[in-house]
């Protein structure tokens, strides 16, 4: 079609006239498309990010399949460089000198931190492990250091702060100049290579990528082949990318099912609403289609008019909604995936998909009813467009007319039956809105409760440790007593740990011994009880599930030729799959006379944690005193859930708004007649609100169990993937008042969407309606 | 409901199947039931009515005639409280419609007015009986009671056997009878008819005319707008002619047989 025909042809003129004449409808469609595009970008972005999240980050950084630790004394630089050209190696970077050092990052983040520091120039394109520098700059001279930290996490020291290196005497102080993140986990910090001599490097690091790296065995075989030419004993250890991947994904496993569910919900709501709004608008224009046909428009021209009419708000809405979706979605995704670092970006594929897909859905939603109307006779189209098809839901309306309900209410209850398809789509949108509200709210509660329980938020105010290598100033018991005497301390638990053997288990297990007031330290129990006497053990849920241990079982623990027996008395949320907690008496059997090297402090009610920490530091300057955060560990998740819930509820409410707009416009004659026989504005509003309230109520009735079920499903997936057992209070988060409120969410969405057009319907002029009809 | 300054006063409890409640209680039995004083109604730059003064006494049957666009329907809409005058005063059954808000106007229509339209304006999804009962049900009359009265009215109008039929299956005359029954449901003081025979064949039109005459003879005040001189001649006791928004002639009529 030529430009002249497009701009001056009858199709264009009719489309332009329709857009101009139905400004409110065009605006609503544009708004719905914008919100739907936003929702679709968000949903597809989440689905994209949830598909192989580690692989995406790993690919972006050209991650290392193997991080090899090499003995610098055994191989020359030439020999090491030759490994990069070995068969099967597709990329290699290094060697870099590496050292284990202790940095004192200050008391707020736990004081001393043991770190692997690597001397490396700024990563260049093509390097393996292109570390992402996300704040500050790369070190350019000795005395500067960049710390490894996932994006968005609290910085242990602001850029510019100088930190002490305390591993040994004479080590240099280093100034933090930036933060970077390595998804391959190759180092905890980086300095310039010329700095390393002062840090006493103890090994070299080579980073490899291999042609075959799908399994641990393949990685090991490829690394062995690559280093085969090195002198024996040069390769002292390595870290496979599969191990790093498993560790990273473990942090995300609880999030992925939730993100996928949100993504599916967002896309579904977007598509449903567009279908509802656009097809409804076309159906309400059937009368015009009939008129076009009477003046000679061909069926094809009629279809073009409607597709073109919808194309205007569709394109404008998509162009506006898409960038908003990206702006809202990317920070949310970054928060959700910050464990993997990297900037999560909505892929161009998703954006292009939405840019084409959303207008395409609009065009399809317009095409189908327009095509149907174009095939009707002109008279049939006019009569179909003048009012809803007769004979629908007549029995229901008849029964309602005879009911005891106020007539405006009974008429409102009958309205949805006049346009069953439109009502069904509106109901589906409300249903998904309610499901999202119930699911998101429940999941946020479960995740918050679980994280708070797992991290023992609020229970441990500060912890106190002392570096045994520096020599304790006093035995543990004495320190415990001293801490107990500090104002603001309510309870003190003494603690130490060991790697022990357990009869029947092939690997060593980390045992954490607790004495003193350990019951105050916030261990949430799934089953059984916390340590309450000698020879008792409490196991984390992950340990219990991995090792198939049960409550009441007796474990034989072995250390340095000594053994002790203890009974499993409880299962707790806190802890991993290769550790458990034992009473202090077990330590005395395994390692008599051993003292605590760490203390957990429970603060008295109202005590200031920072002030308490300051008092403890003043008591013994050598102690490492760390303040535990009371911050909700899932604050970001809550924001995320709230944003998704609000967006999807708004989209659903817009669907209701549009339905009411179309219904009242189609029923203008009936409304005019009803008002002429004395229906008051309040009764009109009541009638319209009742019609949508019914859909909202049904949305609540069906959406509540659906959201509840989805929550149960996702929580059980989280439990299964994480090997967790959650306490009943974390699973059954829906209290009766909460359920009642959520049940009303559907009505809330319906009322929100229906109020404005209902009030508008109550106000329109009867004489104009009756005259125009 | 307590009447306020913006809402009309309650009518007396109606008696009898057909016949106006207003006949038993008018604010001033000797005075006009409808009073338009110097009424003007503008639509954009056009005056649809310009300085119209018209008084209608209780029991009268007034026909308003004139060419299309002369302002007949506008006058009817103002009397029905469907529209508001740009200036002047409209008082019906003692109610100054200018002082009523939207709710007050709705209650006024419900209690004082019955309306018949050229194209019936029935709810297509409701059978005849429920269409008629609707007007009472909006006032809170229980469904059973409303349906009983609606059936009584349909019987009076000779279409009780069509009570369960939907509008689409009724003839034009039957539909207009249902519309008349609905208009009479709340025993209005004033029956307004906008081209009541305009969409009917001659036989159905005759039947509706007979019906209106009967109602008037029972004391029902009528104000009708029509193009049809036969309707005016048969049903009206007074003829008002309008042209360009002004009353140009007014005369009493002797009803023809």
Radius of gyration computed on alpha carbons of chain A = 34 Å
The amount of helix of chain B comes to 25-40%
- What is the chains' assembly state? heterodimer
Provide a count of the helices of chain B.
Answer: 7
What does this structure look like?
The complex is a heterodimer of chains A (773) and B (257). By secondary structure, chain A is α+β, with helices and mostly antiparallel strands. Chain A has 4 domains: 190 residues, no CATH class; 162 residues, no CATH class; 208 residues, no CATH class; 166 residues, Barwin-like endoglucanases. Chain A has 26 helices and 20 strands. In chain A, the strands form 2 sheets. In chain A, strands 2-3-8-5-7-6 form a 6-stranded mixed beta barrel. Chain A has a 6-stranded mixed β-barrel with strand order 12-13-18-15-17-16. In chain A, strand 2 and strand 3 form a beta hairpin. Chain B has 257 residues and is an alpha/beta fold. Chain B has one domain: P-loop containing nucleotide triphosphate hydrolases (Rossmann fold), CATH 3.40.50.300. At the A-B interface, helix 13, helix 14, helix 21, helix 22 and helix 26 of A face helix 1, helix 2, helix 3 and helix 4 of B.
Nutshell version of this structure?
Chain A has 773 residues and is α+β, with helices and mostly antiparallel strands.
Q: What labels would you give this structure?
A:
heterodimer; A: 773 residues; alpha+beta; 6-stranded mixed barrel; 26 helices; elongated; B: 257 residues; alpha/beta; Rossmann fold; 6-stranded mixed sheet; 4-stranded antiparallel sheet; 10 strands; disordered N terminus; ABC_transpr_LolD-like (chain B)
What's the topology here?
The complex is a heterodimer of chains A (773) and B (257).
Chain A: H1 3-8, H2 10-21, H3 23-50, H4 53-60, E1 66-70, H5 77-83, E2 89-104, E3 112-119, E4 132-136, E5 144-148, E6 162-165, E7 174-181, E8 189-191, E9 203-210, H6 216-226, E10 235-240, H7 241-252, H8 255-284, H9 286-294, H10 299-336, H11 348-374, H12 378-386, H13 394-401, H14 407-414, H15 420-454, E11 462-465, H16 476-484, E12 489-502, E13 509-516, E14 525-528, E15 536-540, H17 541-547, E16 554-559, E17 562-572, E18 579-583, H18 584-590, E19 598-603, H19 609-619, E20 624-627, H20 635-666, H21 668-676, H22 681-722, H23 728-731, H24 736-743, H25 745-763, H26 766-772
Parallel strand pairs in A: 3-8, 5-7, 13-18, 15-17
Antiparallel strand pairs in A: 1-9, 1-10, 2-3, 2-6, 2-9, 4-7, 5-8, 6-7, 11-19, 11-20, 12-13, 12-16, 12-19, 14-17, 15-18, 16-17
Chain B: E1 32-43, E2 46-57, E3 61-65, H1 72-80, E4 87-92, E5 95-96, H2 102-112, E6 113-116, H3 128-137, H4 143-156, H5 172-184, E7 190-194, H6 202-217, E8 221-226, H7 229-235, E9 238-243, E10 246-252
Parallel strand pairs in B: 3-8, 3-9, 6-7, 7-8
Antiparallel strand pairs in B: 1-2, 1-4, 4-5, 9-10
């Amino acid at each position: 079609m030529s430009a002249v025909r497009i701009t001056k042809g009858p199709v264009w003129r009719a489309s332009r006239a329709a857009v101009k004449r139905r400004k409110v409808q065009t605006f609503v469609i544009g708004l719905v498309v914008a919100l739907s595009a936003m929702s679709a970008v968000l949903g597809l972005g989440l689905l994209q990010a949830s598909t192989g999240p580690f692989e995406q980050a790993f690919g972006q950084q050209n991650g290392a399949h193997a991080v090899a630790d090499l003995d610098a004394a055994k191989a020359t630089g030439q020999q090491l460089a030759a490994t990069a050209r070995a068969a099967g190696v597709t990329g290699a970077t290094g060697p870099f000198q590496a050292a284990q050092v202790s940095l004192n990052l200050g008391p707020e983040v736990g004081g001393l931190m043991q770190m692997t520091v690597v001397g490396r120039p700024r990563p260049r394109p093509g390097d393996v492990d292109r570390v992402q520098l996300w704040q500050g700059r790369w070190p350019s001279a000795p005395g500067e250091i960049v710390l490894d930290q996932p994006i968005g996490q609290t910085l242990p020291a602001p850029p510019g702060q100088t930190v002490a290196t305390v591993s040994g005497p004479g080590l240099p102080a280093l100034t933090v100049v930036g933060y970077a993140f390595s998804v391959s986990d190759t180092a905890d910090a980086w300095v310039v290579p010329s700095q390393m001599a002062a840090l006493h490097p103890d090994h070299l690091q080579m980073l490899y990528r291999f042609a075959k790296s799908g399994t641990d065995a393949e990685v090991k075989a490829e690394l062995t082949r690559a280093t085969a030419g090195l002198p024996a004993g040069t390769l002292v250890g390595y870290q496979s990318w599969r191990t790093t991947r498993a560790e990273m994904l473990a942090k995300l496993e609880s999030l992925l099912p939730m993100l996928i569910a949100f993504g599916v919900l967002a896309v579904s709501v977007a598509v449903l609403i567009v279908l509802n709004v656009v097809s409804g608008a076309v159906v309400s224009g059937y009368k015009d289609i009939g008129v076009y046909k009477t003046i000679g428009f061909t069926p094809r021209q009629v279809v073009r008019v409607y597709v073109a009419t919808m194309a205007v708000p569709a394109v404008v809405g998509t162009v506006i909604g898409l960038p908003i979706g990206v702006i809202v979605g990317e920070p949310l995704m970054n928060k959700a995936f910050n464990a993997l670092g990297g900037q999560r970006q909505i892929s161009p594929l998703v954006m292009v998909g939405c840019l084409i897909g959303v207008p395409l859905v609009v065009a399809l939603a317009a095409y189908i009813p327009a095509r149907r109307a174009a095939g009707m006779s002109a008279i049939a189209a006019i009569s179909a467009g003048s009012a809803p098809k007769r004979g629908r839901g007549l029995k229901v309306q008849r029964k309602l007319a005879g009911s005891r309900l106020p007539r405006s209410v009974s008429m409102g209850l009958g309205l949805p039956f006049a346009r069953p398809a439109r009502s069904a789509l509106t109901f589906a949108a409300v249903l998904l809105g309610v499901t999202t509200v119930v699911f998101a709210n429940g999941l946020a509660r479960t995740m918050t409760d679980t994280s708070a329980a797992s991290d023992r938020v609020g229970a441990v105010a500060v912890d106190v440790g002392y570096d045994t290598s520096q020599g304790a100033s006093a035995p543990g018991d004495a320190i415990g007593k001293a801490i107990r005497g500090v104002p603001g301390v309510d309870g003190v638990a003494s603690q130490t740990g060991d790697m022990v053997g357990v009869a029947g288990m092939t690997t060593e297990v980390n045992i954490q011994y607790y004495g003193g007031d350990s019951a105050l330290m916030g261990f949430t129990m799934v089953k059984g009880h916390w340590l309450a006497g000698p020879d008792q053990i409490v196991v984390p849920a992950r340990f219990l599930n991995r090792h198939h241990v049960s409550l009441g079982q007796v474990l034989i623990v072995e250390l340095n030729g000594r053994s002790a027996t203890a009974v499993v008395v409880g299962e707790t949320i806190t802890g991993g799959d290769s550790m458990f907690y034992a009473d202090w008496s077990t330590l005395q059997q395994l390692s008599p006379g051993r003292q605590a090297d760490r203390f957990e402090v429970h603060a008295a009610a109202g005590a200031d944690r920072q002030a308490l920490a300051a008092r403890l530091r003043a008591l013994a300057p050598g102690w490492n005193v760390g303040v535990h955060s009371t911050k909700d560990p899932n604050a970001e998740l809550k924001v995320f859930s709230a944003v998704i819930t609000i967006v999807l509820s708004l989209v659903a409410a817009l669907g209701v708004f549009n339905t009411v707009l179309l219904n009242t416009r189609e029923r203008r004659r009936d409304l005019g007649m009803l008002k002429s026989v004395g229906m008051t504005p309040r009764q009109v509003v009541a009638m319209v609100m009742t019609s949508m309230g019914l859909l909202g109520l049904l949305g609540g009735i069906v959406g509540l169990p659906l959201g509840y079920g989805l929550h149960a499903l996702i929580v059980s997936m989280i439990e299964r993937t994480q090997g967790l057992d959650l306490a009943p209070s974390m699973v059954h988060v829906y209290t009766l008042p909460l359920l009642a409120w959520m049940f009303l969410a559907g009505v809330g969405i319906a009322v929100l969407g229906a109020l404005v057009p209902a009030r508008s319907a109550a106000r329109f002029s009867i004489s104009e309606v009756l005259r125009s009809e | 409901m307590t009447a306020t300054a913006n809402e009309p006063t309650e009518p007396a409890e109606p008696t009898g199947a057909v016949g106006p409640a207003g006949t038993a209680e008018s604010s001033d039995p000797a005075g006009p039931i409808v009073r338009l004083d110097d009424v003007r109604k503008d639509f954009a730059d056009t005056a649809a009515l310009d300085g119209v003064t018209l008084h209608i006494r209780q029991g009268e049957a007034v026909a308003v005639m004139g060419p299309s666009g002369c302002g007949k329907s506008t006058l009817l809409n103002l009397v029905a409280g469907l529209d508001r005058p740009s200036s002047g005063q409209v008082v019906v059954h003692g109610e100054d419609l200018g002082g009523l808000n939207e709710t007050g106007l709705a209650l006024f229509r419900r209690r004082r007015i019955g309306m018949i339209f050229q194209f019936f304006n029935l709810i297509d999804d409701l059978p005849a009986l429920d269409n008629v009962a609707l007007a009472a049900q909006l006032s809170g009359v229980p469904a059973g009671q409303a349906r009983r009265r609606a059936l009584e009215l349909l019987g009076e109008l000779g279409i009780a056997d069509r009570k369960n039929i939907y509008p689409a299956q009724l003839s034009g005359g039957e539909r207009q009878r249902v519309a008349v029954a609905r208009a009479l449901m709340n025993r209005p003081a004033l029956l307004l008819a906008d081209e009541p025979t305009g969409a009917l064949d001659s036989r159905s039109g005759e039947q509706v005319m007979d019906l209106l005459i009967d109602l008037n003879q029972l004391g029902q005040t009528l104000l009708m707008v029509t193009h049809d001189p036969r309707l005016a001649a048969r049903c009206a006791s007074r003829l008002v002619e309008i042209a360009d928004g002004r009353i140009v002639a007014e005369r009493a009529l002797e009803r023809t047989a």
